[in-house]
Write a structure and sequence with these properties.
Blueprint (H helix, E strand, L loop, with lengths): L1 E2 L1 E5 L32 H10 L5 E5 H7 L5 H6 L2 E2 L2 E4 L6 H14 L5 E4 L1 H5 L1 H4 L7 E3 L5 H13 L11 E5 L2 E5 L16 H10 L18 E4 L1 E2 L12 H8 L5 E2 L2 H14 L4 E4 L7 H13 L6 E5 L5 H10 L3 E8 L3 H7 L6 H13 L5 E7 L6 H17 L6 E7 L9 H4 L6 E3 L4 H8 L4 H4 L2 E3 L4 H21 L5 H24 L4 H18 L21 H23 L15 E3 L1
Length: 602
Amino acid sequence: MIYDLVLLHPPTVYDFRKEMLFTGPISDVVPSSPVFEMYPIGLTSIGDYLERFGLKVKIINIANRMLLDPKFDVEKKIRNIKARAFGIDLHWLPHAHGSVELAKIVKKYHPGTPVLFGGLSSTYFHEELIEYPWIDFVVRGDTTEKLILMLLNKLEKGDGTGFADIPNLTWKRDHQYFYNEITYVPDSLDEFNLPGYRYIIGSVFKYFNLLDPLPYKGWIQYPNTAILTSKGCSYNCLICGGSKDAYEMNCNRKKLVMRSPKKMLEDIALIQRFTRAPIFLLNDIRQGGKKYVDEFLDGLAKMKLKNELVFELFNYADEKFFARLNKAIPKFSIELTLESADEEIRKYNGKLPCTNAKVIEMLQFALKHNCSKIDLFFMTGIPNQTYASAMRNVDFCEIIHKECNESTRISYFVAPLSPFLDPGSPAFEHPEKYGYKKFCHKLEDFREAMKQPSWKNMLSYETNSMTREEIVAATYDSALRLNEFKWIYNIITKDVHDEVEMKIKKSVEFLKRHDELALLPAEEQKQELGLIKEEVDKINRHSICGENELKWEVKKLFANFPSLTYIGLELLIKDVIKDIKCKLGKIDRNKVMVTSSSTVRK
């Protein structure tokens, strides 16, 4: 089969299976592993949108295939693909190395096939990316479905007139580089499915492959799902690459745009057909305003909701909000990123800038109104935070726990701001102003940083209060104290406590050993690192918290295969009808147009 577009998700470092990489805690509080194999949901939206017009689009999660099978041959897989174009995501910056290396492999076996890059990090570093000989286009901005369709149409016609009429596009011709202005910034998201679960399920049956599009390792056993509620942000946290300023500078998005409650309710109805696992609502729905929240919750109240919903909260919520959730939803949980126990630090950074008393009050309201689980996240490496301040986070956890009647429904986590300071964030753009020293400036700096054997040396920054070494020490010391606190108060079992303690102490030993090896000649250093790789790999995951601490309890973990099959067959029938309509000219992909842009030549 010849695909119109094959979307590839890279690992962080290629090939991580051979390199000794002590990534430590950088992925401990996200579902995926240190390889960050969970691809951005935008890939599914792109596939979903393009296939509406009769195109054949396939997602291959290269990172996950490599994780699932140590012998998986990436080059053989890519060599055997027949495609008119390849797309590679560079959305999260830790993929800076793997994405570009994957592009090299694609060009090695398909030198005449266009390679597209996209994502927030691709948008930020588009001028550097386009200079690589194995990258032909960078599609910029936060919503690229229509732009990619326009680009594929243009490539198919091969009229040789260039690509100046496609907004947001970076491209090259005859060793010259062109940067079309970002003028396409849609103020509605409702024509896009974020994520496109129908597309994912349909592609499994359409292309007879279950493994390629799996979101992350273990998804079949624990199929968490998520819905993107908005793009842009109304908050301006200093260290966030998704902040208000970052979106405006990077994507020309000057205001927040929310998906309609109607679309989100449709997504929830579909998801609960194939899984009972929790559904995460990404971003705070309250950014849409009271009317928006009321419409969404009224719709949920009318549904026969079977899944737990998990809400992100960016600021204080009063008792009325939690009472409203409890009335509309059979089971809900919340996630709060407090970052710091110090009120002044939170206020300075912009994250939950309310008092500690208000934080505790909010948690008490949530528990009172039957919130099932509360995840609280603290962070090391934020502006103005000292080692002592980082350690006070654990003291605050104990205060919260006692004030909330020692409820075991609250889970506590600490993690470093790592490995990189987000490009586009206020702190990245103005480091001296906000108390940072940057070690990485250009894309190649980040690519080199990701290859460092230890996460301490991957860190792209220091703060005005802590060096890299102090950030690492604050992370492990506070994690040890937090681990002890959890065990004392029966939040975790003794087995979990002992395993986490062992991993943290081993991690500290590895860092010390790595510092010693750094004094050796390069070749000897490489050999010694290779000898400890297997031992390092064993503690690279869940090194500062228990493996199951982030999981939600569900009665049925596995995806519902009969339901998935039914949905897949249903979608296949619709796909056949759609293909007939395309052949009859009733669906014309060439009619999709957006605002054109001017071109600036370098």
